[in-house]
Design goal:
- By secondary structure, the chain is of the alpha/beta class.
- Among the domains are: about 235-345, Flavocytochrome C3, Chain A, domain 1 (Alpha-Beta Complex); about 415-515, Fumarate reductase/succinate dehydrogenase flavoprotein-like, C-terminal domain (Methane Monooxygenase Hydroxylase, Chain G, domain 1).
- It contains 13 helices and 24 strands.
- The chain has helices spanning about 25-35, 65-75, 85-105, 135-145, 215-225, 255-260, 285-295, 315, 320-325, 385-400, 420-435, 440-450, 460-470, and strands spanning about 1-5, 5-10, 10-15, 20, 40-45, 55-60, 120, 130, 150-165, 170-180, 185-190, 190-195, 205, 225-230, 235-240, 245-250, 260-265, 305, 335-345, 350, 365, 370, 495-500, 505-510.
- Strand 9 (about 150-165) and strand 10 (about 170-180) form a beta hairpin.
C-alpha cells in the first residue's frame, strides 16, 4: 500500500534510473543514447505523432547552406521570441544528428547521383529538408529509432500522475504512477523524462493521432512545473478536408507546395500571390490565416489545393498524399483537393533549459511537450523531428554525467478525476475561441465555458492554460493572432509563463529577465 494525497492506492512497484514517458522520436532518442549506460524504462502509450510526420528533417547540409542561414529562417518564422542560444544548438548540432540517423540505417531519399535529395518547404529560403519515402519521413525515423533495444525495459501504458517528495532541493519528481492493462505500476526513478507530445486532440480537428491530448502538459502542471508559450498553437494550413467534424485529418505535406502545388479560392484564383513574398510557401501561420479568411468569405469549410502541375510525379513523390486523396475519391493529378487548417503543433510546452531540465528537480522534458525556445511564436517547417533528435541526445548526455539523488521512499501523488463532459467542451471551446484567430470576447467566452468543467480534469487544465496565455498576450505574433490586437508590439517580445495558483488554476506568472529573446 502506498500513501498518497488521495488516501491509498495499491500498485505494483518498479525501480529504474531513468523513466521515459513517451515512445516517439524524442523519447526513443533519449532511451537509445542511454541504453547500456543507465537503467532505462520506457512507458509507451503508442508512438505518438512521429510515424505520421510527412514533412522532413531540416538541416544545413548542402554545400551552399550553413547553420546561420537555417537559424535566420527559423528566427523569422519564430517572430522575435526564439531563444537565440537554443536556436544555435538546434542548427549547429542538426547536421550531426542527421548523420547519426544515417549511421543508424535511415533510408533517406537521394538524387540519381547518390546525394541526399533536399526539398524546399514553407519559410525556408534554401533547399535543406531531407525526406524518406517522399512524405513518410516520420515513419522511417520511427523505424530506425524503435529497433532492437535489448537493454531498455518497456511498459505499454500511460502515466496518470507524477510522484513527488521533499528532497534536498525542495520538492522533486520521483517517478510516476503508470496505468496499464494489467493494473497500476508505481515507477520510482531518479530522472523522469516527459516525451509525450503535444495537445492535438484538445482541438476538434488535428493532424495528430489519437492519444496526443496534452497529457504530459497536465502531468507537469499539476506537479508544479512552469509551462510557457502555450498561446503559440500552430495550425497546419493544409489538412485534407474529409468532411469529418472531429478527430484526425490527413496532413497534406508542405513539400507538395514546395514542388509546385498552389492554393486556389472557389473562383480558381491564387489567393496567396501578393499576400506574402513567398506566396504559397509563406510561413504556416500566414497561410493558415489566409485560408481561414478566404474560406469564410466563400462560406465554405475549405479552399482548394491545385497539385495538377505535378502530374504523374505525384504517386512517386507523395504516395501518402495520393493514398489519402483516394480515400475520399479524388486523384490529385487531375482533381482539385479540398484543404483546411487543423491543429498541428504546439510551439510551447514545459519550460526547459538547453539540456532538457525543467524547474522541478528530477523532471525533464523533450520533444513537442517541451518549450526549449527554438520555435518561438511559430515553428519553421521540418524543425520538429530535428528538435527531438538534437535535444533528445543532449538530454541523454546530461543524464550520463549527472542524475539527481534518490528522494525519500514515500512519494506523494494525486490522480486527477477526469470529467466525462470535458473532452467535447474543451474541443469545441478551443476550436471556436482559441484557434487560428482569437479576440478578447471569444477568450472570455472560453474562460466561462471551461469553468463549467471540473477543475481537476487534466485536459481542461491544459485548455485553461492555453486560454490564459492567449488572453495575456495582447498583440499578434506568429501563430497567435488577435483580431482585436492585430499589430506586433515590441514590449511583448517576451514569453508568457504559466503555473498553477493557490486555487489550483493555471495563471500567468512573471518570467525572468533572461527569457527575453534577442
Amino acid at each position: 500500500m502506498t500513501a498518497t494525497e488521495n488516501g491509498t492506492e495499491t500498485a505494483t512497484e518498479r525501480d529504474t534510473e531513468v523513466l521515459v514517458l513517451g515512445g516517439g522520436v524524442a523519447g526513443l532518442t533519449v532511451a537509445r543514447a542511454l541504453a547500456g549506460v543507465r537503467r532505462v524504462l520506457i512507458v509507451d502509450a503508442g508512438p505518438g505523432s512521429t510515424p505520421w510526420a510527412q514533412g522532413g528533417i531540416a538541416a544545413a547540409v548542402a554545400p551552399d547552406d550553413d547553420p546561420q542561414a537555417h537559424a535566420r529562417d527559423t528566427a523569422v518564422a519564430g517572430a522575435g521570441v526564439c531563444d537565440p542560444a537554443a536556436l544555435a544548438v538546434l542548427v549547429e548540432e542538426g547536421p550531426g544528428a542527421l548523420a547519426g540517423l544515417l549511421r543508424g540505417g535511415a533510408r533517406l531519399d537521394r538524387e540519381g547521383d547518390g546525394r541526399l535529395a533536399l526539398g524546399l518547404e514553407g519559410g525556408h529560403h534554401q533547399r535543406r529538408v531531407v525526406h524518406a519515402g517522399g512524405d513518410a519521413t516520420g515513419a522511417e525515423v520511427h523505424r530506425v529509432l524503435s529497433g532492437a533495444l535489448p537493454e531498455v525495459e518497456r511498459i505499454a501504458g500511460a502515466a496518470v500522475a507524477l510522484t513527488t517528495a521533499l528532497g534536498p532541493r525542495g520538492r522533486q519528481v520521483t517517478g510516476a504512477l503508470v496505468r496499464t492493462a494489467d493494473g497500476d505500476v508505481l515507477v520510482r526513478s531518479r530522472a523522469t523524462v516527459l516525451a509525450t507530445g503535444g495537445l492535438g486532440h484538445a482541438y476538434a480537428r488535428t493532424t495528430n493521432p489519437d492519444g496526443v491530448d496534452g497529457s504530459g502538459l497536465a502531468l507537469a502542471l499539476s506537479a508544479g512545473a512552469t509551462l510557457t508559450d502555450l498561446e503559440f498553437v500552430q495550425f497546419h494550413p493544409t489538412a485534407l478536408a474529409t468532411g469529418a467534424a472531429r478527430g484526425r485529418l490527413p496532413l497534406v505535406s508542405e513539400a507538395v507546395r514546395g514542388e509546385g502545388a498552389v492554393l486556389r479560392d472557389h473562383e480558381g484564383r491564387r489567393f496567396m500571390v501578393g499576400r506574402h513574398p513567398l506566396a504559397d510557401l509563406a510561413p504556416r501561420d500566414v497561410v493558415a490565416r489566409e485560408i481561414t479568411r478566404v474560406a469564410a468569405a466563400a462560406d465554405a469549410p475549405y479552399v482548394w489545393l491545385d497539385a495538377r502541375p505535378l502530374g504523374g510525379s505525384l504517386a512517386h513523390r507523395f504516395p501518402t498524399f495520393v493514398q489519402s486523396c483516394a480515400g475520399i475519391g479524388l486523384d490529385p493529378a487531375v482533381d482539385l483537393v479540398p484543404v483546411t487548417p487543423a491543429e498541428h503543433y504546439l510551439c510551447g510546452g514545459v519550460a526547459t533549459d538547453r539540456w532538457g531540465a525543467t524547474d522541478l528537480p528530477g523532471l525533464y522534458a523533450v520533444g513537442e511537450v517541451a518549450a526549449t525556445g527554438v520555435h518561438g511564436a511559430n515553428r519553421l517547417a521540418s524543425n520538429s523531428l530535428l528538435e527531438g533528435l538534437v535535444f533528445g541526445q543532449r538530454l541523454a548526455d546530461r543524464l550520463v554525467l549527472d542524475l539527481p539523488d534518490r528522494a525519500p521512499r514515500e512519494p506523494a501523488f494525486a490522480v486527477p478525476a477526469a470529467d466525462p463532459d470535458a473532452l467535447e467542451t474543451v474541443r469545441s471551446t478551443l476550436s471556436a475561441h482559441a484557434g487560428v484567430v482569437r479576440d478578447a470576447g471569444g477568450l472570455a467566452t472560453a474562460r466561462a465555458a471551461l469553468r463549467r468543467v471540473s477543475a481537476t480534469d487534466p485536459l481542461a487544465q491544459v485548455a485553461r492554460a492555453v486560454v490564459e496565455a492567449a488572453t495575456a498576450r495582447t498583440e499578434s505574433r506568429g501563430a497567435h493572432y488577435r483580431r482585436d490586437h492585430p499589430d506586433t508590439v515590441e514590449t511583448w517580445r517576451r514569453r508568457v509563463m504559466i503555473r498553477l495558483d493557490d486555487a489550483g488554476l493555471p495563471s500567468v506568472v512573471p518570467g525572468p529577465a533572461e527569457e527575453r529573446a534577442a
